[in-house]
TrEMBL record, chain B:
Keyword RNA-binding: yes
Keyword line: Glycosyltransferase, RNA-binding, Transcription, Transcription regulation, Transcription termination, Transferase
Catalytic EC class: transferase
Family: Belongs to the purine/pyrimidine phosphoribosyltransferase family. PyrR subfamily.
One example of a Gene Ontology biological process annotation: DNA-templated transcription termination
Cited Gene3D superfamilies: 3.40.50.2020
Organism domain of life: Bacteria
Subunit structure: Homodimer and homohexamer; in equilibrium.
InterPro entries (alphabetical): PRTase-like (IPR029057), PRTase_dom (IPR000836), PyrR (IPR023050), PyrR_bifunctional (IPR050137)
Gene that encodes it: pyrR
Name of the protein this chain belongs to: Bifunctional protein PyrR
A GO term for molecular function: uracil phosphoribosyltransferase activity
UniProtKB/TrEMBL annotation, chain C:
EC number: 6.3.4.16
Molecular functions (GO terms): ATP binding; carbamoyl-phosphate synthase (ammonia) activity; carbamoyl-phosphate synthase (glutamine-hydrolyzing) activity; metal ion binding
InterPro entries: ATP-grasp (IPR011761), CarbamoylP_synth_lsu_oligo_sf (IPR036897), CPAse_ATP-bd (IPR005479), CPSase_dom (IPR005483), CPSase_preATP-grasp (IPR058047), PreATP-grasp_dom_sf (IPR016185)
PROSITE patterns assigned: ATP_GRASP (PS50975)
Species annotation: Companilactobacillus tucceti DSM 20183
Organism lineage string: Bacteria, Bacillati, Bacillota, Bacilli, Lactobacillales
Pfam families: CPSase_L_D1, CPSase_L_D2
GO biological process: glutamine metabolic process
PANTHER family on file: CARBAMOYL-PHOSPHATE SYNTHASE [AMMONIA], MITOCHONDRIAL, CARBAMOYLTRANSFERASE FAMILY MEMBER
Keywords assigned: ATP-binding, Ligase, Manganese, Nucleotide-binding
Domain (ATP-grasp): residue spans on this chain: 126-319
Protein name in UniProt: carbamoyl-phosphate synthase (ammonia)
Domain of life: Bacteria
Keyword Ligase: yes
Reactions this protein catalyses: hydrogencarbonate + NH4(+) + 2 ATP = carbamoyl phosphate + 2 ADP + phosphate + 2 H(+)
Length: 362, 173, 799
């Protein structure tokens, strides 16, 4: 049945509704992910977002529930162009799956025009509704999106992901399960804690390394976490991913700035500065580090985005801190970025070595 | 039968990591000099230098050291009478990072240090190697190691580098 | 950076075989960029007319049969620094494989001996893949029963088996699904010295093709993916292809991507490497079936689908450029480290010239193809394979309706090139989709798409189109004139792409200095027309390879000429014309398989200066009325008299209705049972000859008072000339008439269309002025040679 995607600035995109029939509003994000709809919709980053997918024939490749990145989806709505009601492996059709998650969707939308509009006017609020009168548009303009996105998605209770190797504490800012998959693969004995966990709480877990995950929202909304980082970074090796990276930057007197064109793509090229090697990795971020302040700070830039030259990774000059803005755990996207986890483990190993620890054979 | 145990990608990542560690442990790299031993140690030095250049935008001088005249079994007189070509870099008060591809008994490194001492008085000498295979016969240790590979003394480690062997890999046989 | 010691490159060019892919655009892009980057290039070709416009960039053209021996001879004579085999199709790779060890330090660019050999020798291919842990189909070839049974135990059923006889002949493959069939096969009579070959059967697996670009520094990018609608068992180029591969979910896509990159690394292929996979969605088994380390039909298709400048980037990567620092010919930097994202589906449907049904199998049978775009699978099916204007589907429907259920089912079990029509008929008769999928191994979503198409066709046929279902019809790409009007009247409807235009590769865009927008726009939300007056060139579907080459040449020259004369060229074709890279900025290409552009009136009438229509040239249908604005290029035969002679002359004439120019003359004569053909013969004609010919021209063309091109054939009989053939329009001879003259003819034609006139009172020399400096001489239709003025003079004296 006919529904409309209405943008904050009044632009209307008609389409056909599917999934849940509720009315919804959220921050509209245009995603160029080629595959991995399951991952994108269950990614906690999508909290409060309406995601528009520009890839054609959505759903044809099937839905695999093993690919979930969190248990519940926080996505507010899904906008697509063409779709297929049949799947290649007999799994549940896309429309039905969205409905079981309780998410409203709208299809047959001209996603090309939408994508062009957003790239020209910036990300904005949008709503999926059944009518498109003046009243509806005013409602959207009036709506304020909730600011405490990380609080909503971060785990309330600590939980383990046990194994036999290095002890990692993962601070959950909205983490994707694939981070835990990569840590498991490397035998890491992980404990996942709430974003506000105190330094004492984390220290009591005796971590070998601390990981700050990716997550939704504005990093300046988390002053408490930033303060905690300042304390912990003096004692432990730290890996920051996405939002985690931005927090670490802020904790060290760097500034962040929004990107001209936000990176929402499952395969974008990133160059490792030291060796010149180009990798294709998954990006899902709208902010980057302001390069003007980097040289004065104690960080060196380790990765840049080939397409627009923005900073994608950095490392502290003498403390064991490394960060990347992209998502090395992929899901979806090319697996070129997995090496970041290996590098972090190496970093932990060499830190131990320096202080007389056990020599580890890789 | 040679078996590849480290592929090209792992090797380049190890070199990148060594570079990060060098930066981490030296507050400021202005007084660094890289000295590469024999053939492949020189390529290791150059690769580290190019990474340092990319990361910190500073050019670190690289020198080559040929220590074949300094074999362990030579007598004292023979060593005294050897004519070695001098390094073309001043090493006084510098922090030297000796680089080599494989660290085994340690005798090559000792010979290298002997040679260096003839050329000047460095502030400090550190050692960076791509592979540490154990079985040291002298009290020498590497400050920066690419990979630790335990081996038996019957086995041989063979390092191939693109510059001279056409590809990057490490094999054991 | 770029390899510093290569300055001189020998390109192994295409052979004359009709079986080869038409890579003329890729060749043009390659030699153009090499020329612009300052390399000296030479090429070995069998037929220099196949070079068309690329000739202007080459430093030397060697006309010889493209064989290993001739290449070796050239290497010894001229010592180039490197050989480039990537444009030479399979033949070039074969030559590279044979040159091993014989060429000392001459580099091979792009591929290498090992990779080339592996494309021919299966054992080498399998061995290398196994060494690198890549999934390959194992096979055994043996006469030892223990070995054979042990192999079968290891890999299990289903398998395929055949016998290899001592005279190197094979029996056909037999499918063996269980012990019973195996026993039957093994019990068959065996000759002496027979080996049995056994392989895991991949019949029924889905087929995918991935193309990866790799540079010398281990950077690799996945440029495009293709999937086949038909499964393994039907040749890749006889199947209906779809790009991107929408049936792959993330983990399958990344798995195949990683394998492709690893394979390129294992064979050290620099440039483009296409890998073919067989994938079973039920068991998740995956095998690499072959790889192609050169430019091919797949790269040609992907270059169109993604706008990624494959040909240009391939040659630069092989010369040592970094993937993210490639140069386009316009001097601008291009970031090749992109995995192009496409928001629509591009599809390739094979075409057969014979309208009868044909059985399909592992060997290619189709003659050409058509490429269409759409947003959904239904749309591309409607525009392509089920497009009645292209494939005569109504005829097929009528024929298939007459078959009974068993006969129809037979056509399903034994696939034919009418597969999609057959399936449509089966669905109409309510055959069940899961059963059809099981039998044909075609994935269910395609069958569902066919079902949707069928349901909607019924709606149109029964005249039940209204504002409620119009949108669904639009979504499925069903557009006829009547429906388009209906949808244009509704203000709520999303007007999807009716046609697709390509303006590709912005080397920089706002905010993304290195990001490339491969803009493939749709009418109504993307095409931006500038203010300039336009000349629209309409081109129909072409099927023969020769005609495709002619079309490439003519369109390119037309576009350049129109541009130079200050107007904007717009090319509207029923199938896409891939413009060479350097021209893509200047021309607006629109493909319009349903011929809707005219109805939609999207280009303002007052901006259209003229329409040049090629449809009549290739004698396909055109439904245009007599429009003064349309300049029809007809290849119409005006006169054909059957008089033979030993000496003939072909003259190409361009006229504005009053005066004539004859810039190109081909002379042909027979002596001592050898035939000689010399082009640009103008300069060897005496004044009397020229006068005679001009009189003939004026006489023959007296009745035709319009701007046009004519081709006359004159035979010498008893010492005077007789006109035997007169053609209106451009014939295939335009590429024989030697390059500079042909370009001049096309340019003159454009100027005449724009309103210029041929000068009055030109003298003979000016009328017959010729623009070439080398003369192409053909002996016995096979041997080509370039000669200069003196050499030709000597030849003429002798005959």
């Amino acid at each position: 049945m006919k529904r409309y995607l209405i943008l904050e600035d009044g632009t209307v995109f008609p389409g056909v509704g599917f999934g849940s029939s509720i009315i919804t509003t959220g921050q509209l994000v245009v995603s160029n992910n080629r595959t991995g709809i399951e991952q994108s919709v269950t990614d906690p980053d999508s909290e409060g977002q309406i995601i528009a997918f520009t890839v054609p024939a959505i759903g044809l490749s099937g839905i695999n529930r093993d690919f979930y990145e969190s248990i519940n989806s926080q996505c507010k709505g899904v906008v697509i162009g063409s779709s297929s009601s049949a799947t290649v492996d007999g799994s549940i059709p896309f429309g039905d799956w969205i409905e079981t998650l309780g998410i409203p969707g709208i299809k047959n939308v001209d996603v090309r025009a939408l994508s062009k509009h957003i790239s020209e006017h910036g990300e904005m609020k949008a709503s999926i509704m059944d009518t498109h009168d003046e009243h509806a548009i005013d409602q959207i303009k009036a709506l304020v999106l909730p600011p405490d996105l990380v609080k909503r998605v971060s785990t309330k209770q600590s939980y383990p992901n046990p194994n036999m190797g290095l002890k990692m504490v993962v601070v959950d800012l909205g983490l994707k399960y694939s981070i835990l998959r990569q840590l498991s693969y490397r035998d890491c004995n992980s404990v996942i804690v709430n974003y506000n966990a105190s330094p004492e709480e984390i220290e009591s877990l005796h971590p070998d390394g601390i990981i700050y995950s990716n997550g939704p929202g504005d990093p300046t909304d988390l002053p408490n976490t930033i303060e905690n980082i300042k304390v912990l970074q003096k004692k432990y090796p730290i890996l920051g991913i996405g939002l985690g990276n931005l927090l670490i930057a802020l904790a060290n007197d760097c500034k962040i700035e929004p990107l001209d064109q936000p990176h929402h793509e499952s395969s974008l090229a990133v160059k490792e500065v030291a060796s010149g090697k180009i990798d294709f990795v998954n990006h899902n971020h709208s902010y980057t580090i302001d390069p003007k302040y980097i040289s004065a700070s104690d960080f060196i830039v380790t990765n840049i985005c080939v397409a627009d030259g923005s900073i994608e990774g950095m490392r502290h000059e003498y403390l064991p801190i490394m960060c990347v803005l992209f998502e090395p755990e992929a899901a979806p996207g090319p697996t070129d970025g997995y090496y970041v986890f290996d590098e972090f483990i190496d970093l932990i190993g060499s830190t131990k070595n320096q202080y007389g620890g056990v020599d580890r054979w890789q | 039968m040679a078996k590849e145990i480290i592929d090209g990608q792992t090797m380049t990542r190890a070199l990148t990591r060594i570079t990060y560690e060098i930066i981490e442990r030296n507050k400021g790299i202005d007084d660094l000099v890289l000295v590469g031993i024999k053939t492949r140690g020189v390529f290791v030095a150059h690769r580290i230098e190019s990474r340092l250049k990319q990361l910190e935008n500073i050019s670190i001088p690289v020198a080559e050291l040929d220590i074949t005249p300094y074999r362990d079994d030579m007598t004292h007189e023979e060593i005294e009478n050897i004519n070695i070509p001098p390094l073309d870099i001043d090493i006084d008060k510098k922090h030297i990072i000796l680089t080599d591809d494989v660290l085994y008994t340690g005798r090559t490194i000792r010979a290298a240090m002997d040679a260096l001492m003839k050329f000047g008085r460095p502030k400090k000498i550190s050692l960076a190697v791509l592979v540490d295979r154990g079985h040291r016969e002298l009290p020498i240790r590497a400050d920066f190691v690419g990979k630790n590979i335990p081996t038996s003394q019957k086995e041989k480690i063979r390092v191939s580098m693109k510059e001279i062997d056409g590809e990057d890999k490490i094999e054991i046989e | 950076m770029a390899i510093s010691d290569v300055h001189n490159i020998l390109i192994i060019g295409p052979t004359s075989s009709d079986k080869n892919v038409d890579l003329s655009t890729a060749l043009y892009d390659t030699v153009e960029i090499l020329h612009k980057l300052g390399y000296k290039t030479s090429i070995i070709v069998e037929d220099p007319t196949s070079l068309l416009s690329s000739g202007e960039f080459l430093d030397r053209i060697i006309v010889e049969k493209v064989t290993g021996d001739n290449i070796l001879k050239y290497l010894n004579d001229y010592h180039p620094d490197a050989i480039l085999p990537t444009i030479g199709d399979k033949n070039a790779l074969g030559i590279v494989a044979s040159l091993n060890g014989k060429i000392s330090n001459i580099r091979i660019l792009g591929t290498n001996y090992l990779a080339s050999l592996a494309t021919f020798k299966r054992e080498l291919f399998i061995k290398r893949l196994s060494q690198n842990d890549l999934p390959v189909i194992n096979f055994v070839s043996s006469d030892d029963e223990t070995e054979i049974y042990s192999f079968i135990r290891k890999i299990g059923f289903p398998i395929i088996a055949r016998r290899k006889y001592s005279n190197r002949h094979f029996s056909g493959w037999t499918n063996i699904n269980n012990l019973f069939e195996l026993d039957n096969f093994m019990a068959l009579e065996e000759l002496e010295d027979t080996k049995i070959e056994i392989e895991r059967s991949i019949r029924g697996f889905s087929e995918y093709s991935f193309t990866v670009m790799r540079d010398r520094y281990e950077n690799a990018a996945l440029v495009g993916t293709i999937e086949d609608i038909e499964p393994i068992g039907i040749h890749h180029l006889d199947s209906n292809l779809i790009s991107p591969a929408v049936s792959l979910n993330d983990s399958k896509l990344q798995k195949l991507r990683n394998y492709s990159i690893k394979l390129a690394q294992a064979f050290n292929v620099v440039g483009a490497c296409t890998v073919h996979f067989a994938y079973n969605h039920k068991t998740n088994e995956c095998y690499i079936t072959e790889f192609i380390p050169r430019l091919s039909e797949e790269t040609k298709f992907l270059e169109y689908a993604t706008s990624y400048p494959l040909a240009t980037v391939v040659v630069e990567l092989s010369l040592g450029y970094h993937l993210d620092k490639v140069q386009l010919d316009s001097g601008s930097n291009f970031n090749g480290a992109t995995e192009p994202f496409v928001d629509h589906i591009t599809s390739r449907f094979p075409l057969w010239t014979d309208p009868k049904q044909k059985y399909l199998g592992p060997s290619k049978t189709s003659n050409s193809s058509i490429v269409v775009n759409g947003f959904s699978i239904e749309e591309v099916l409607n525009r392509g394979a089920l497009n009645d204007k292209i494939n005569d589907n109504l005829e097929r429907y009528n024929k298939l309706r007459q078959l009974n259920d068993d006969e129809l089912f037979e056509k399903i079990i034994h696939p034919t090139n009418w597969m999609l029509d057959v399936l449509l008929e089966a669905l109409r008769r309510k055959f069940e989709i899961p059963v059809l999928s099981e039998v044909t191994s075609i994935n269910v979503p395609y069958l569902v798409a066919l079902q949707n198409v069928m349901d909607n066709s019924a709606v149109i046929r029964d005249d039940e189109v209204d504002e409620n279902n119009i949108e669904r019809l639009v979504e499925y790409g069903i557009k006829g004139v009547g429906n388009s009007k209906l949808l244009m009247n509704s203000d709520d409807i999303v007007t999807k792409t009716v046609v697709k235009s390509k303006r590709s590769i912005g080397a920089s865009g706002p905010g993304f200095m290195n990001h490339n927008y491969f803009v493939t726009s749709g009418i109504s939300n993307d095409i931006e027309f500038n203010d300039r007056n336009k000349i629209i060139v309409r081109s129909p579907i072409i099927t023969s390879k020769r005609d495709i080459m002619v079309r490439q040449f003519v369109l390119l020259q037309l576009v350049k000429s129109i541009e130079q004369n200050g107007l904007e060229p717009v090319v509207i074709g029923r199938e896409p014309w891939t413009a060479p890279l350097s021209v893509r900025y200047n021309v607006l290409e629109i493909d319009d398989p349903h011929r809707e552009m005219s109805e939609l009136n999207l280009i303002p009438e007052n901006k259209i200066f003229k329409i040049i229509d090629f449809s009549k040239f290739w004698n396909l249908d055109t439904s245009d009325s007599d429009n003064k604005n349309i300049f029809q290029i007809n290849a119409r035969e005006l006169k054909n008299v059957n008089i033979a002679g030993d000496t003939t002359i072909k003259v190409m004439v361009v006229t504005d209705g009053k005066n004539y120019l004859a810039p190109s003359i081909i002379y042909r004569t027979k002596k001592n049972s050898q035939t000689y053909e010399i082009s640009d013969f103008n300069n060897f004609l005496s004044v009397e000859n020229k006068d005679e010919i001009l009189t003939i021209i004026k006489h023959e063309l007296d009745l035709y008072k319009e701007i046009n091109i004519f081709n006359l054939e004159i035979v010498k009989r008893n010492d005077h000339w007789v006109v035997t053939k007169v053609y209106e329009g451009m014939t295939e001879d335009i590429i024989r008439h030697e390059l500079a003259s042909s370009v001049h003819v096309i340019d003159t034609l454009v100027k005449l269309i724009l309103g210029n006139k041929i000068d009055e009172g030109l003298n003979l020399d000016e009328i017959f002025k010729n623009y070439d400096s080398d003369y192409l001489v053909t002996v016995n239709e096979k041997k080509f040679r370039f000669m200069d003025y003196d050499e030709v003079n000597k030849l003429i004296q002798s005959i």
